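Lecture notes, part 5. Sequence design as translation. It can be helpful to think of inverse folding as translation between two languages: the language of shapes and the language of residues. The source text, in structure tokens, appears below.
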């Protein structure tokens, strides 16, 4: 994926990550978060622009080092976590709606309580995807059912 393909508009994004093997990561004030092998979805908002926010995430994931600011940053620097897909919606801040929709769906588990949601009332913004469907297709379908048009980009994954 070319960095320039990312939207400069503000909006909401879902970053799908692949845990290549089980990993335990210290995530700031949340403490230790243990992830099993598989797919995870992080739901976030990009109030300064999707390219800027997600670009920062992808840079941390690539370098496996950098300033750790958000809960997701701690996970991204793990050698066993790879960005897999990015699904985003331009112009709408619907991260809480997506998080709530994921919570209600069978086959979705909260990966870590309070993760990415310290500034809101959501249980979490980080989920383990144990659905029987391709993870990006599942997330894109969920967003379409909510009445939005998602953009889907495959990221470099092993």
């Amino acid at each position: 994926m070319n960095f320039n393909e990312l939207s400069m508009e503000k909006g909401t994004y879902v970053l799908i990550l692949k845990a290549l093997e089980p990993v335990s990561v210290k995530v700031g004030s949340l403490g230790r978060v243990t992830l099993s092998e598989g797919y995870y979805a992080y739901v976030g908002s990009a109030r300064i622009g999707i390219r800027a926010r997600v670009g920062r995430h992808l840079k941390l994931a690539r370098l496996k080092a950098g300033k750790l600011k958000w809960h997701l940053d701690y996970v991204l620097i793990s050698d066993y976590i790879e960005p897999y897909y990015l699904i985003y919606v331009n112009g709408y801040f619907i991260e809480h709606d997506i998080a709530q929709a994921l919570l209600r769906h069978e086959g979705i588990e909260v990966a870590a309580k309070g993760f990415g949601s310290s500034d809101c009332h959501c249980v979490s913004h980080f989920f383990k995807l144990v659905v029987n469907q391709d993870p990006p297709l599942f997330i894109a379908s969920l967003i379409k059912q909510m009445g939005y048009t998602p953009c889907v980009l495959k990221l470099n994954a092993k």
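The translated text above is only one of many valid answers, since several sequences can fold into similar shapes. Helices lie at 50-63, 71-76, 95-104, 135-145.
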